[in-house]
Amino acid sequence: MVPRISRREAPARPRVEGDREQEILDAAIAVLVDAGYDRLTMDAVATKAKASKATLYRKWDGKADLVIDALMSQKTPLETPPDTGSLRGDLLSMYCGHGGLTDEHQTALLGSVVTAIGRDPEFAAAFRDRFIAPKVEVGRVVYERARQRGELRDDVDLDILTAALPGIVLHRGFLLGDPPTQDLIARVVDQVILPAATRG
Predict the structure, then answer these.
(1) Do 119 and 68 share a structural domain?
(2) What pTM was estimated for this model as a whole?
(3) 70 in Cβ contact with 56 (< 8 Å)
(4) Which of 57, 85, 124, 151 has the fewest C-beta atoms lying within 10 Å of its C-beta?
(5) Does pLDDT of 80 surpass 50?
(6) Do 94 and 148 belong together in one domain?
């Protein structure tokens, strides 16, 4: 008779980590870009990653958890906000180029989850906390530095100001079909942000 193995004695499930974890996250990104968040399933990611669905559930509770980790794996961290010596220079440095608003891959990822933010409270909360909040904080540091240099008016509301540039650019991109470019960002900075925020 084969002795029964107690739960305490049962071997631990293998962890998903390292290169294999990144392969699964990359597969999640591929499915996300192709199908969007609403149609993404754990089965589809498992198939794309050539893994079992059980393997995914060893690491992630569900698709919201998996997608957030996948998005974070693609994110270009800005550990140190740009400091060019001027607000204009900082904004152009931060929002143009790799990881910024002109990065087509990043904006495609954002577009693939827009509907989920309005429909899935669990995903929306995690997305705002883990993906958006760090970007907002970096932006706030840039404006705080401008305030310390004496560039900003004393009455400027930084909560509104930090959201203005990405808000305008993403609105034009997603709703009006005007893709983010360095020229567009420069025009928004020069014609909206600086006149509204600076002492002139």
Answers:
(1) no
(2) 0.79
(3) no
(4) 85
(5) yes
(6) yes
